[in-house]
Amino acid sequence: MPPALIVERFDVREGHNDTRMLALKDLCSVMDLSTTSKYDGTMERVARAVRLLSTAPDDDLLIVVKRALFAWLIADGDMHLKNMALLKIAEPGDRQFGSVRVAPLYDAVTTRVFPNLKHDRMALKLSGKDDNLRCADFRTLATTAGLSAGVADAAMDDMLQRLWGGVDRIALPGAMEFTDATRKMVADMLDICRARLEGLG
Question: What distance in Å separates the CA atoms of residue 44 and residue 174, rounded to the nearest whole number?
Answer without folding.
Answer: 42
